[in-house]
Design a protein that fits this description.
The chain contains four helices and seven strands; from the N terminus they run E-H-H-E-E-E-E-E-E-H-H. The protein has 148 residues and is an alpha+beta fold.
Length: 148
């Protein structure tokens, strides 16, 4: 097992149609408005940017992002990640009744020296930290969608 690699998968059920959810998710610069752990998202150009995250544990992760796939027809958004996390993340949206099933998948390798040093003992905390961030993100997005 490579203790520095993580694979995450979350499913969010949202009370808004897929096109509406996609329109919100394709604007990462607005994520800090509804996702508390996304502290900063700064576009560099139409396909690249930077983001800073911080959840329960007292450290920030800073990543560069680049668009890999932006497909409104298939309702897929995928990015490549560099910096503190190297890998990719993807949203896949499908209709579910009158709402949306939002599947979030992420595969990354942690590049932060301190996190790498504590990879074995810290892994459960790092995974719990991510789970808290995702739970908060789902609540924030659901609330945001009720307002738009």
């Amino acid at each position: 097992m490579d203790w520095h690699r993580y694979r995450f998968r979350s499913v969010w059920r949202l009370d808004a149609p897929p096109a509406t959810v996609y329109a919100v998710l394709e604007r990462p610069e607005d994520y800090p408005r509804w996702w508390p752990q996304v502290r900063e998202a700064v576009p560099v150009d139409g396909t690249r940017g930077t983001a800073r995250f911080r959840s329960f544990l007292p450290y920030d992760l800073v990543v560069t992002v680049r668009a890999l796939r932006r497909d409104p027809r298939a309702r897929v958004l995928e990015i490549g990640l560099g910096g503190d996390l190297e890998g990719w993340a993807r949203w896949t949206l499908t209709p579910e009744g009158p709402g949306t099933r939002a599947l979030y998948e992420q595969e990354v390798e942690v590049r932060v020296p301190l996190m790498r040093a504590f990879a074995v003992v810290g892994r459960p905390l790092f995974r719990a930290n991510h789970a808290l961030m995702m739970r908060s993100g789902r609540r924030g997005l659901a609330s945001h969608l009720r307002r738009v």
